[in-house]
Write a structure and sequence with these properties.
- This protein has a domain of about 110 residues: Alpha/beta knot (3-Layer(aba) Sandwich).
- Helix 4 crosses helix 5.
- The chain is about 55% helix and about 20% strand.
- It is of the alpha/beta class.
- The strands form 2 sheets. The protein has a 4-stranded parallel sheet.
- The radius of gyration is 31 Å and the shape is elongated.
- The protein is built from 6 helices and 6 strands, in the order αααβαβαβαβββ.
- InterPro entries: MT_TRM10-typ_sf.
Length: about 200
């Protein structure tokens, strides 16, 4: 163990607080290092009790596992390069502009698991929107939790071509075009002629 006393004798009165901190950190390091050495000694003692053929089998299994992981990473990199090369997916142009409004005002009431599922579904929506020119998506009233989870899970979420609006659905409907799909948890729309629920 390192002798901490000799470090404390070198300090003068002005630097005593800093020297004490330094000595404490050295002492803490020495204690941790001793624990690591004791752990290594115990491990070696345990290994000494295990027959050599079993140790060789364990070592061979460990090496096979490492090699498998290396090959798996290599395959994943190859697949990633292929996906990047196939970025030019076939796009379909719609004859009309279709607006999809997703009401996310209810996301505050969701737990983490439900929110994660919703975020992954929205990722699929973005995948469809990329292939169909003329399809536009508007997210209404997303909560802060939804936006944070989307940024965490969906790569490039901020660059998605989605309109994010914090206004009410009913306030925005008169300004929107005729071809419109509204997806909502429970939404009551009042129109001039009739009222209906969208579930």
């Amino acid at each position: 163990m390192i002798d901490v006393e000799q470090h404390s004798n070198d300090s003068n009165g002005d630097d005593s607080v800093e020297a004490d901190r330094h000595n404490e950190s050295i002492l803490h390091f020495c204690v941790q290092f001793d624990e690591v050495l004791q752990c290594m000694k115990r491990t070696n003692e345990i290994d000494a009790d295990i027959p050599k053929d079993i140790l060789k089998r364990k070592e061979a299994r460990y090496k096979r596992l490492i090699e498998y992981r290396r090959l798996k990473r290599k395959d994943e990199r190859r697949r990633r390069r292929q996906r990047k090369a196939n970025v030019d997916v076939e796009c379909f142009r719609l004859d009309f502009e279709l607006n999809v409004i997703v009401d996310l005002a209810f996301t505050d009431a969701m737990n983490g698991k439900e929110l994660g599922k919703l975020v992954r579904q929205m990722g699929r929506v973005w995948g469809i929107q990329k292939r169909y020119i003329g399809l536009k998506t508007t997210l209404l009233s997303p909560c802060k939790k939804f936006l944070e989870e989307s940024r965490r899970v969906l790569t490039g979420f901020d660059s998605f071509q989605w309109n994010i609006s914090f206004s009410d659905v009913q306030a925005g409907i008169p300004n929107l075009p005729a071809l419109l799909v509204i997806i909502s948890f429970v939404l009551r729309i009042q129109s001039r002629k009739t009222s209906f629920d969208i579930l």
